[in-house]
Amino acid sequence: MEQRPGHACGVFGVYAPGQPVAHLAYLGLFALQHRGQESAGIAVSDGETITVVKDMGLVTQVFDERRLAPLVGHLAIGHNRYSTTGSSSWRNAQPVYRSVGDAGFALGHNGNLTNTVHLAERVGMLPGMTAPEIELDSTTDSALVAELVAQEYPPSPRSDGRDLEMALERVLPRLEGGFSFVLMDDARLIGVRDPHGFWPLTLGRIAGGWILASESAALDIVGAHYVRDVEPGEMVVIDASGIRSHHFAEATPKLCLFEFVYFSRPDTTLYGQSVHAARQRMGEVKNRYIGRTFIAPTPETRAAGVRLKLNPIRENIAGKRIVVVDDSIVRGTTQLTLTRMLREAGATEVHLRVTSPPYRWPCFYGMDTGRRPELVAADLEVGEIRSYLGVDSLAYLELDRLIAATGSRRQSFCTACLSGEYPVPVPDADTKLALEEPAPTPEPTPEPATRTESRRSVSIVWRCRSMMSPPTAPSRCSSSITSPSASSFPRRSMRSSPGWPTGAGRPGARCSGARCRSTAA
Predict the structure, then answer these.
(1) 55-102, pLDDT tens digit by residue?
(2) Under a CB-based contact definition with an 8 Å cutoff, are residues 188 and 164 in contact?
(3) Which of 176, 337, 447, 510 has the CA that lies 20 to 30 A from 104?
(4) C-alpha–C-alpha distance, residues 345 and 206, integer Å
(5) Which parts of 183-255 fold into alpha helices (H)?
(6) Coil, helix or strand for 82?
(7) Which of 82, 86, 74 is nearest to 24 (CA)?
(8) Rounded to two decimals, what is the model's pTM?
(9) Backbone phi, then psi, for 260, in 5-degree steps?
(10) Does the active-site annotation cover 9?
(11) CA-to-CA distance for 153 and 165, rounded, in angstroms?
Protein backbone atom coordinates (compact mmCIF):
# COMPACT_ATOMS: atom_id res chain seq x y z
CA MET A 1 0.00 0.00 0.00
CA GLU A 2 2.71 2.47 0.95
CA GLN A 3 4.90 4.13 -1.66
CA ARG A 4 7.70 1.77 -0.80
CA PRO A 5 11.17 1.28 -2.16
CA GLY A 6 11.27 -0.55 -5.45
CA HIS A 7 13.36 -3.65 -5.55
CA ALA A 8 16.14 -4.04 -8.07
CA CYS A 9 15.14 -7.19 -9.98
CA GLY A 10 14.40 -10.88 -10.04
CA VAL A 11 16.77 -13.33 -11.77
CA PHE A 12 16.31 -16.92 -12.90
CA GLY A 13 18.54 -19.46 -14.61
CA VAL A 14 18.05 -23.04 -15.81
CA TYR A 15 20.41 -25.68 -17.19
CA ALA A 16 18.32 -28.67 -18.27
CA PRO A 17 19.10 -30.45 -21.56
CA GLY A 18 15.97 -31.97 -23.03
CA GLN A 19 13.66 -29.68 -21.06
CA PRO A 20 11.69 -26.66 -22.39
CA VAL A 21 14.07 -24.19 -20.77
CA ALA A 22 12.40 -21.06 -22.16
CA HIS A 23 9.06 -22.11 -20.70
CA LEU A 24 10.70 -22.89 -17.37
CA ALA A 25 12.35 -19.46 -17.40
CA TYR A 26 8.95 -17.90 -18.14
CA LEU A 27 7.38 -19.67 -15.16
CA GLY A 28 10.31 -18.69 -12.96
CA LEU A 29 10.00 -15.04 -13.94
CA PHE A 30 6.26 -15.15 -13.38
CA ALA A 31 6.91 -16.42 -9.85
CA LEU A 32 9.36 -13.53 -9.35
CA GLN A 33 7.19 -10.83 -10.93
CA HIS A 34 6.80 -9.03 -7.60
CA ARG A 35 10.52 -8.14 -7.67
CA GLY A 36 10.30 -6.02 -10.81
CA GLN A 37 7.56 -4.96 -13.22
CA GLU A 38 9.22 -2.55 -15.65
CA SER A 39 10.64 -5.03 -18.16
CA ALA A 40 11.25 -8.73 -18.66
CA GLY A 41 13.64 -10.77 -20.79
CA ILE A 42 14.89 -14.28 -21.50
CA ALA A 43 18.12 -15.48 -23.14
CA VAL A 44 18.37 -19.05 -24.48
CA SER A 45 21.30 -21.06 -25.88
CA ASP A 46 21.11 -24.12 -28.11
CA GLY A 47 24.87 -24.68 -27.91
CA GLU A 48 25.69 -22.49 -30.90
CA THR A 49 23.40 -19.47 -30.79
CA ILE A 50 22.31 -17.23 -27.92
CA THR A 51 18.89 -15.70 -28.50
CA VAL A 52 17.77 -12.78 -26.33
CA VAL A 53 14.15 -11.60 -26.16
CA LYS A 54 13.27 -8.65 -23.92
CA ASP A 55 10.75 -5.85 -23.79
CA MET A 56 9.05 -3.40 -21.48
CA GLY A 57 6.15 -4.70 -19.40
CA LEU A 58 5.11 -7.63 -17.25
CA VAL A 59 6.21 -11.18 -18.01
CA THR A 60 2.77 -12.05 -19.38
CA GLN A 61 2.83 -8.95 -21.60
CA VAL A 62 6.27 -9.64 -23.02
CA PHE A 63 5.95 -13.41 -23.56
CA ASP A 64 3.31 -15.68 -24.97
CA GLU A 65 3.45 -19.07 -26.69
CA ARG A 66 4.27 -17.45 -30.03
CA ARG A 67 7.38 -15.84 -28.58
CA LEU A 68 8.42 -18.79 -26.45
CA ALA A 69 8.06 -21.51 -29.10
CA PRO A 70 11.16 -20.53 -31.14
CA LEU A 71 13.34 -20.30 -28.02
CA VAL A 72 14.78 -23.81 -28.15
CA GLY A 73 17.89 -24.76 -26.22
CA HIS A 74 19.35 -26.47 -23.19
CA LEU A 75 20.01 -23.49 -20.90
CA ALA A 76 18.42 -20.10 -20.30
CA ILE A 77 18.44 -17.10 -18.01
CA GLY A 78 15.63 -14.64 -17.29
CA HIS A 79 15.25 -11.23 -15.70
CA ASN A 80 12.54 -8.95 -14.27
CA ARG A 81 13.68 -5.35 -13.84
CA TYR A 82 12.99 -2.51 -11.49
CA SER A 83 15.46 0.27 -12.27
CA THR A 84 18.08 1.33 -9.71
CA THR A 85 21.01 2.41 -11.93
CA GLY A 86 19.83 3.59 -15.34
CA SER A 87 16.43 4.85 -16.40
CA SER A 88 13.39 2.71 -17.10
CA SER A 89 13.73 2.17 -20.86
CA TRP A 90 13.93 -0.57 -23.47
CA ARG A 91 17.68 -0.34 -23.88
CA ASN A 92 18.13 -0.95 -20.15
CA ALA A 93 15.99 -4.09 -20.12
CA GLN A 94 17.90 -7.30 -19.43
CA PRO A 95 19.47 -9.79 -19.99
CA VAL A 96 22.46 -7.81 -21.30
CA TYR A 97 24.25 -9.46 -24.23
CA ARG A 98 27.90 -9.13 -25.29
CA SER A 99 29.30 -10.70 -28.46
CA VAL A 100 32.73 -12.04 -27.55
CA GLY A 101 34.39 -15.42 -27.70
CA ASP A 102 32.61 -18.30 -29.42
CA ALA A 103 29.03 -17.12 -28.99
CA GLY A 104 29.11 -14.27 -26.50
CA PHE A 105 27.40 -14.23 -23.13
CA ALA A 106 24.28 -12.84 -21.46
CA LEU A 107 23.91 -11.42 -17.96
CA GLY A 108 21.06 -10.67 -15.56
CA HIS A 109 21.66 -8.61 -12.42
CA ASN A 110 19.78 -8.14 -9.16
CA GLY A 111 21.30 -5.38 -7.03
CA ASN A 112 23.26 -2.16 -7.38
CA LEU A 113 26.97 -1.36 -7.44
CA THR A 114 28.34 1.40 -5.22
CA ASN A 115 31.50 2.03 -7.25
CA THR A 116 29.77 2.46 -10.62
CA VAL A 117 31.27 5.88 -11.34
CA HIS A 118 34.82 4.72 -10.56
CA LEU A 119 34.52 1.62 -12.76
CA ALA A 120 32.81 3.50 -15.58
CA GLU A 121 35.51 6.15 -15.58
CA ARG A 122 38.21 3.52 -15.99
CA VAL A 123 36.52 1.98 -19.06
CA GLY A 124 35.36 5.29 -20.56
CA MET A 125 31.61 4.84 -20.05
CA LEU A 126 30.83 8.09 -18.24
CA PRO A 127 28.82 10.70 -20.20
CA GLY A 128 31.11 12.75 -22.41
CA MET A 129 33.90 10.13 -22.46
CA THR A 130 32.65 8.19 -25.50
CA ALA A 131 33.09 9.35 -29.08
CA PRO A 132 30.07 11.25 -30.43
CA GLU A 133 29.32 8.50 -32.95
CA ILE A 134 29.31 5.80 -30.26
CA GLU A 135 25.89 5.22 -28.70
CA LEU A 136 25.91 3.04 -25.59
CA ASP A 137 23.40 0.22 -25.80
CA SER A 138 22.60 0.47 -22.06
CA THR A 139 23.23 2.87 -19.19
CA THR A 140 23.04 0.42 -16.29
CA ASP A 141 25.68 -0.86 -13.93
CA SER A 142 24.75 -4.30 -15.30
CA ALA A 143 25.97 -3.25 -18.76
CA LEU A 144 29.10 -1.88 -17.12
CA VAL A 145 29.79 -5.28 -15.55
CA ALA A 146 29.16 -6.97 -18.91
CA GLU A 147 31.67 -4.65 -20.57
CA LEU A 148 34.28 -5.32 -17.89
CA VAL A 149 33.80 -9.07 -18.37
CA ALA A 150 33.97 -8.75 -22.17
CA GLN A 151 37.28 -6.90 -21.90
CA GLU A 152 38.75 -9.79 -19.89
CA TYR A 153 38.01 -12.38 -22.57
CA PRO A 154 41.18 -13.82 -24.14
CA PRO A 155 42.06 -12.95 -27.76
CA SER A 156 41.40 -16.55 -28.77
CA PRO A 157 38.97 -19.02 -27.13
CA ARG A 158 40.28 -21.34 -24.41
CA SER A 159 40.42 -25.03 -25.26
CA ASP A 160 38.26 -25.89 -22.24
CA GLY A 161 35.65 -23.24 -23.10
CA ARG A 162 35.86 -21.57 -19.68
CA ASP A 163 36.40 -18.06 -21.03
CA LEU A 164 33.42 -16.52 -19.20
CA GLU A 165 34.32 -18.21 -15.93
CA MET A 166 37.93 -17.02 -16.04
CA ALA A 167 36.92 -13.49 -17.05
CA LEU A 168 34.53 -13.31 -14.08
CA GLU A 169 37.26 -14.35 -11.68
CA ARG A 170 39.23 -11.29 -12.74
CA VAL A 171 36.28 -8.87 -12.65
CA LEU A 172 34.33 -9.86 -9.53
CA PRO A 173 36.97 -8.67 -7.00
CA ARG A 174 36.64 -5.14 -8.46
CA LEU A 175 32.89 -4.86 -7.83
CA GLU A 176 31.50 -3.20 -4.71
CA GLY A 177 27.91 -3.12 -3.49
CA GLY A 178 25.07 -5.57 -3.93
CA PHE A 179 24.87 -8.08 -6.78
CA SER A 180 23.36 -11.45 -7.51
CA PHE A 181 24.13 -12.42 -11.11
CA VAL A 182 22.95 -15.12 -13.44
CA LEU A 183 25.11 -15.46 -16.56
CA MET A 184 25.34 -17.81 -19.49
CA ASP A 185 27.46 -18.48 -22.53
CA ASP A 186 26.62 -21.08 -25.16
CA ALA A 187 27.28 -24.02 -22.83
CA ARG A 188 27.33 -22.89 -19.18
CA LEU A 189 25.05 -21.39 -16.55
CA ILE A 190 26.75 -19.33 -13.82
CA GLY A 191 25.39 -17.86 -10.59
CA VAL A 192 27.27 -15.24 -8.54
CA ARG A 193 26.52 -13.57 -5.20
CA ASP A 194 28.37 -10.61 -3.70
CA PRO A 195 30.55 -11.18 -0.59
CA HIS A 196 27.86 -9.76 1.72
CA GLY A 197 24.98 -11.64 0.12
CA PHE A 198 22.74 -8.57 0.17
CA TRP A 199 20.25 -10.25 -2.18
CA PRO A 200 19.27 -13.91 -2.15
CA LEU A 201 20.16 -16.48 -4.81
CA THR A 202 19.13 -20.11 -4.46
CA LEU A 203 20.22 -23.33 -6.13
CA GLY A 204 17.68 -26.03 -6.98
CA ARG A 205 17.60 -29.43 -8.68
CA ILE A 206 15.24 -30.35 -11.48
CA ALA A 207 14.99 -33.53 -13.54
CA GLY A 208 18.11 -33.60 -15.69
CA GLY A 209 19.38 -30.22 -14.59
CA TRP A 210 19.73 -27.29 -12.21
CA ILE A 211 17.93 -24.06 -11.36
CA LEU A 212 19.16 -20.68 -10.04
CA ALA A 213 16.56 -18.23 -8.74
CA SER A 214 16.25 -15.11 -6.61
CA GLU A 215 13.82 -16.90 -4.29
CA SER A 216 13.16 -20.49 -3.31
CA ALA A 217 9.48 -20.02 -4.17
CA ALA A 218 10.42 -19.91 -7.85
CA LEU A 219 11.93 -23.38 -7.49
CA ASP A 220 8.59 -24.72 -6.31
CA ILE A 221 6.77 -23.19 -9.28
CA VAL A 222 8.96 -25.02 -11.84
CA GLY A 223 8.96 -28.34 -9.95
CA ALA A 224 12.52 -28.10 -8.63
CA HIS A 225 13.57 -28.91 -5.10
CA TYR A 226 15.71 -26.61 -3.00
CA VAL A 227 19.35 -27.67 -2.60
CA ARG A 228 21.00 -24.69 -0.91
CA ASP A 229 21.63 -20.96 -1.11
CA VAL A 230 24.49 -19.70 -3.24
CA GLU A 231 26.85 -18.45 -0.56
CA PRO A 232 28.05 -14.85 -0.29
CA GLY A 233 31.25 -14.47 -2.32
CA GLU A 234 30.58 -17.65 -4.29
CA MET A 235 30.46 -18.37 -8.03
CA VAL A 236 28.59 -21.53 -9.09
CA VAL A 237 29.21 -22.95 -12.58
CA ILE A 238 26.89 -25.53 -14.16
CA ASP A 239 27.65 -27.34 -17.42
CA ALA A 240 27.68 -30.80 -18.97
CA SER A 241 30.32 -31.98 -16.51
CA GLY A 242 28.15 -31.11 -13.50
CA ILE A 243 28.38 -28.31 -10.96
CA ARG A 244 31.47 -26.69 -9.46
CA SER A 245 31.97 -23.83 -7.04
CA HIS A 246 34.57 -21.12 -6.54
CA HIS A 247 34.78 -18.53 -3.75
CA PHE A 248 36.17 -15.25 -5.05
CA ALA A 249 35.93 -13.40 -1.71
CA GLU A 250 35.54 -14.03 1.99
CA ALA A 251 31.89 -14.22 3.03
CA THR A 252 30.44 -11.61 5.41
CA PRO A 253 26.68 -12.30 5.27
CA LYS A 254 24.46 -9.20 5.36
CA LEU A 255 21.15 -10.20 3.78
CA CYS A 256 18.81 -7.25 3.29
CA LEU A 257 16.40 -7.31 6.22
CA PHE A 258 13.62 -6.04 3.96
CA GLU A 259 13.60 -9.41 2.21
CA PHE A 260 11.81 -10.64 5.34
CA VAL A 261 9.78 -7.47 5.80
CA TYR A 262 8.48 -6.96 2.30
CA PHE A 263 10.30 -8.12 -0.82
CA SER A 264 10.24 -11.91 -0.74
CA ARG A 265 7.12 -13.95 -1.32
CA PRO A 266 5.58 -15.43 1.85
CA ASP A 267 6.25 -18.96 0.54
CA THR A 268 9.99 -18.25 0.24
CA THR A 269 12.58 -19.51 2.71
CA LEU A 270 15.46 -17.26 3.86
CA TYR A 271 18.23 -18.37 6.21
CA GLY A 272 16.27 -21.59 6.58
CA GLN A 273 13.28 -19.67 7.97
CA SER A 274 9.79 -19.35 6.51
CA VAL A 275 9.09 -15.78 5.44
CA HIS A 276 5.38 -16.28 6.15
CA ALA A 277 6.05 -17.49 9.69
CA ALA A 278 8.41 -14.57 10.31
CA ARG A 279 5.78 -12.08 9.17
CA GLN A 280 3.20 -13.65 11.41
CA ARG A 281 5.57 -13.10 14.31
CA MET A 282 6.01 -9.49 13.17
CA GLY A 283 2.26 -9.04 13.25
CA GLU A 284 1.60 -8.85 9.53
CA VAL A 285 -0.97 -11.20 8.02
CA LYS A 286 -1.96 -9.55 4.76
CA ASN A 287 -1.17 -10.86 1.28
CA ARG A 288 0.25 -8.29 -1.14
CA TYR A 289 1.46 -10.32 -4.06
CA ILE A 290 -1.20 -9.64 -6.67
CA GLY A 291 -1.15 -6.20 -8.25
CA ARG A 292 1.60 -4.75 -6.09
CA THR A 293 1.81 -0.98 -6.49
CA PHE A 294 5.18 -0.13 -4.96
CA ILE A 295 7.02 -1.27 -8.10
CA ALA A 296 5.24 1.25 -10.32
CA PRO A 297 8.01 3.61 -11.46
CA THR A 298 6.35 6.96 -10.64
CA PRO A 299 4.63 8.39 -7.55
CA GLU A 300 1.56 9.24 -9.62
CA THR A 301 1.00 5.68 -10.79
CA ARG A 302 1.66 4.30 -7.30
CA ALA A 303 -0.88 6.65 -5.74
CA ALA A 304 -3.44 5.82 -8.43
CA GLY A 305 -2.79 2.15 -7.78
CA VAL A 306 -3.87 2.57 -4.16
CA ARG A 307 -7.34 3.71 -5.20
CA LEU A 308 -7.57 0.95 -7.79
CA LYS A 309 -6.72 -1.73 -5.22
CA LEU A 310 -8.28 -0.36 -2.06
CA ASN A 311 -11.63 1.18 -2.78
CA PRO A 312 -13.25 1.22 0.68
CA ILE A 313 -16.67 -0.35 1.31
CA ARG A 314 -18.36 2.44 3.21
CA GLU A 315 -20.86 0.16 4.96
CA ASN A 316 -18.00 -1.72 6.63
CA ILE A 317 -16.10 1.40 7.68
CA ALA A 318 -18.57 4.18 8.53
CA GLY A 319 -18.72 4.93 12.26
CA LYS A 320 -15.91 2.53 13.18
CA ARG A 321 -12.41 2.82 14.61
CA ILE A 322 -9.97 1.38 12.06
CA VAL A 323 -6.54 -0.16 12.72
CA VAL A 324 -4.29 -0.34 9.64
CA VAL A 325 -1.34 -2.77 9.76
CA ASP A 326 1.39 -2.03 7.22
CA ASP A 327 4.93 -3.33 6.80
CA SER A 328 6.72 -0.03 6.20
CA ILE A 329 6.39 3.68 5.57
CA VAL A 330 9.01 5.19 3.29
CA ARG A 331 7.90 8.48 1.77
CA GLY A 332 4.42 8.47 3.28
CA THR A 333 2.57 10.02 0.35
CA THR A 334 0.53 6.91 -0.47
CA GLN A 335 -0.32 6.39 3.19
CA LEU A 336 -1.80 9.90 3.13
CA THR A 337 -4.07 8.80 0.29
CA LEU A 338 -5.17 5.72 2.22
CA THR A 339 -5.93 7.66 5.39
CA ARG A 340 -7.94 10.20 3.42
CA MET A 341 -9.93 7.40 1.77
CA LEU A 342 -10.78 5.86 5.15
CA ARG A 343 -11.84 9.23 6.56
CA GLU A 344 -14.01 9.87 3.50
CA ALA A 345 -15.61 6.44 3.99
CA GLY A 346 -16.70 7.48 7.50
CA ALA A 347 -14.02 6.04 9.80
CA THR A 348 -14.17 7.78 13.18
CA GLU A 349 -10.54 6.94 14.02
CA VAL A 350 -7.58 5.61 12.00
CA HIS A 351 -4.71 3.94 13.88
CA LEU A 352 -1.55 2.80 12.08
CA ARG A 353 0.75 -0.05 13.15
CA VAL A 354 3.96 -0.70 11.21
CA THR A 355 5.76 -4.06 11.39
CA SER A 356 9.23 -2.51 10.92
CA PRO A 357 11.16 0.44 12.42
CA PRO A 358 11.12 3.94 10.88
CA TYR A 359 12.79 3.96 7.45
CA ARG A 360 15.36 6.75 7.87
CA TRP A 361 18.27 6.14 5.44
CA PRO A 362 18.39 5.45 1.69
CA CYS A 363 19.63 2.15 0.28
CA PHE A 364 22.55 2.08 -2.16
CA TYR A 365 22.73 -1.68 -2.65
CA GLY A 366 19.65 -2.38 -4.75
CA MET A 367 16.50 -0.67 -3.44
CA ASP A 368 15.26 2.49 -5.12
CA THR A 369 14.32 4.63 -2.11
CA GLY A 370 15.25 8.04 -3.46
CA ARG A 371 17.25 10.59 -1.50
CA ARG A 372 17.20 10.93 2.27
CA PRO A 373 15.18 14.20 2.26
CA GLU A 374 12.39 12.23 0.54
CA LEU A 375 12.10 9.77 3.45
CA VAL A 376 9.37 10.82 5.85
CA ALA A 377 11.19 9.47 8.92
CA ALA A 378 14.57 11.02 8.04
CA ASP A 379 14.04 14.13 10.15
CA LEU A 380 10.69 13.57 11.86
CA GLU A 381 9.93 11.88 15.16
CA VAL A 382 7.09 9.38 15.47
CA GLY A 383 4.66 11.98 16.78
CA GLU A 384 5.45 14.32 13.91
CA ILE A 385 4.96 11.52 11.40
CA ARG A 386 1.58 10.74 13.01
CA SER A 387 0.50 14.34 12.53
CA TYR A 388 1.77 14.42 8.94
CA LEU A 389 -0.11 11.25 8.02
CA GLY A 390 -3.27 12.39 9.76
CA VAL A 391 -3.75 9.23 11.84
CA ASP A 392 -4.92 9.10 15.44
CA SER A 393 -2.02 6.93 16.62
CA LEU A 394 1.14 5.44 15.15
CA ALA A 395 3.48 2.72 16.42
CA TYR A 396 6.48 0.96 14.86
CA LEU A 397 8.00 -2.45 15.58
CA GLU A 398 11.43 -2.09 17.20
CA LEU A 399 14.49 -3.30 15.30
CA ASP A 400 15.48 -5.94 17.85
CA ARG A 401 11.98 -7.41 17.84
CA LEU A 402 11.91 -7.40 14.04
CA ILE A 403 15.17 -9.32 13.85
CA ALA A 404 14.00 -11.74 16.55
CA ALA A 405 10.95 -12.52 14.40
CA THR A 406 13.23 -13.72 11.58
CA GLY A 407 14.85 -16.35 13.78
CA SER A 408 18.33 -15.25 12.66
CA ARG A 409 21.17 -13.24 14.18
CA ARG A 410 21.40 -9.47 13.83
CA GLN A 411 24.94 -9.79 12.46
CA SER A 412 23.50 -11.67 9.46
CA PHE A 413 21.52 -8.71 8.16
CA CYS A 414 22.04 -5.38 6.49
CA THR A 415 19.95 -2.86 8.45
CA ALA A 416 21.36 0.29 6.83
CA CYS A 417 17.97 1.74 5.88
CA LEU A 418 16.79 1.42 9.49
CA SER A 419 19.99 2.00 11.47
CA GLY A 420 22.26 4.01 9.17
CA GLU A 421 24.98 1.37 9.51
CA TYR A 422 26.26 0.71 5.97
CA PRO A 423 28.41 -2.45 5.66
CA VAL A 424 29.95 -1.21 2.38
CA PRO A 425 30.98 2.43 1.76
CA VAL A 426 28.38 4.30 -0.26
CA PRO A 427 28.68 7.17 -2.76
CA ASP A 428 28.12 10.75 -1.65
CA ALA A 429 25.43 11.37 -4.26
CA ASP A 430 22.67 9.53 -6.08
CA THR A 431 24.23 7.59 -8.98
CA LYS A 432 21.04 6.26 -10.58
CA LEU A 433 21.63 8.22 -13.80
CA ALA A 434 25.44 8.37 -13.58
CA LEU A 435 25.89 6.69 -16.97
CA GLU A 436 23.32 8.81 -18.81
CA GLU A 437 23.71 12.11 -20.60
CA PRO A 438 21.63 14.99 -19.18
CA ALA A 439 18.32 15.28 -20.96
CA PRO A 440 18.52 17.81 -23.82
CA THR A 441 16.33 20.87 -23.86
CA PRO A 442 13.17 19.88 -25.77
CA GLU A 443 12.62 21.45 -29.16
CA PRO A 444 9.41 23.41 -29.78
CA THR A 445 6.58 21.09 -30.72
CA PRO A 446 5.80 21.45 -34.45
CA GLU A 447 2.31 21.95 -35.73
CA PRO A 448 0.53 18.61 -36.20
CA ALA A 449 0.43 17.29 -39.75
CA THR A 450 -2.89 16.99 -41.49
CA ARG A 451 -2.21 13.34 -42.34
CA THR A 452 -1.81 10.76 -39.62
CA GLU A 453 -0.56 7.21 -39.93
CA SER A 454 -1.24 4.25 -37.69
CA ARG A 455 1.80 2.71 -36.04
CA ARG A 456 2.17 -0.33 -33.86
CA SER A 457 4.96 -1.00 -31.41
CA VAL A 458 7.57 -3.58 -32.34
CA SER A 459 9.66 -5.70 -30.03
CA ILE A 460 13.08 -6.58 -31.34
CA VAL A 461 14.46 -10.11 -30.99
CA TRP A 462 18.22 -10.39 -31.33
CA ARG A 463 19.88 -13.58 -32.48
CA CYS A 464 23.66 -13.64 -32.55
CA ARG A 465 25.86 -16.45 -33.86
CA SER A 466 29.60 -16.45 -33.62
CA MET A 467 31.41 -16.08 -36.94
CA MET A 468 34.65 -17.40 -35.38
CA SER A 469 36.36 -14.33 -36.86
CA PRO A 470 39.57 -12.71 -35.63
CA PRO A 471 38.87 -9.97 -33.06
CA THR A 472 39.77 -7.28 -35.59
CA ALA A 473 37.38 -8.51 -38.26
CA PRO A 474 34.38 -6.25 -38.85
CA SER A 475 30.98 -7.63 -38.02
CA ARG A 476 28.26 -8.33 -40.53
CA CYS A 477 25.03 -7.03 -39.09
CA SER A 478 21.65 -6.45 -40.63
CA SER A 479 18.30 -5.34 -39.36
CA SER A 480 14.88 -5.88 -40.80
CA ILE A 481 11.43 -5.12 -39.51
CA THR A 482 8.33 -6.62 -41.03
CA SER A 483 5.16 -4.61 -40.89
CA PRO A 484 1.84 -4.23 -42.68
CA SER A 485 2.84 -0.81 -43.95
CA ALA A 486 6.17 0.00 -45.55
CA SER A 487 5.57 3.70 -45.08
CA SER A 488 5.05 3.20 -41.35
CA PHE A 489 8.14 1.06 -40.87
CA PRO A 490 11.11 2.15 -43.00
CA ARG A 491 13.95 -0.35 -43.22
CA ARG A 492 16.92 0.47 -41.01
CA SER A 493 20.53 -0.41 -41.58
CA MET A 494 23.17 -1.41 -39.04
CA ARG A 495 26.59 0.18 -38.85
CA SER A 496 29.69 -1.74 -37.90
CA SER A 497 32.15 -0.51 -35.32
CA PRO A 498 35.01 -2.26 -33.52
CA GLY A 499 34.47 -0.07 -30.46
CA TRP A 500 32.25 -0.30 -27.40
CA PRO A 501 29.65 -1.69 -27.01
CA THR A 502 30.38 -5.19 -28.27
CA GLY A 503 26.86 -6.54 -27.84
CA ALA A 504 23.75 -6.27 -29.94
CA GLY A 505 21.07 -3.71 -29.29
CA ARG A 506 18.15 -2.21 -31.12
CA PRO A 507 18.60 -1.10 -34.76
CA GLY A 508 21.33 1.51 -34.82
CA ALA A 509 23.50 -0.26 -32.23
CA ARG A 510 26.95 -1.56 -33.13
CA CYS A 511 28.15 -5.16 -33.13
CA SER A 512 31.56 -6.79 -33.20
CA GLY A 513 32.48 -10.39 -33.90
CA ALA A 514 28.94 -11.70 -34.32
CA ARG A 515 26.23 -11.94 -36.91
CA CYS A 516 23.16 -10.17 -35.57
CA ARG A 517 19.64 -10.21 -36.88
CA SER A 518 16.53 -8.46 -35.62
CA THR A 519 12.99 -9.38 -36.48
CA ALA A 520 9.63 -8.08 -35.45
CA ALA A 521 8.40 -10.32 -32.64
Answers:
(1) 999 999 999 999 999 999 999 999 998 765 445 678 889 999 999 988
(2) yes
(3) 176
(4) 50
(5) 216-221
(6) coil
(7) 74
(8) 0.79
(9) -75, -40
(10) yes
(11) 10
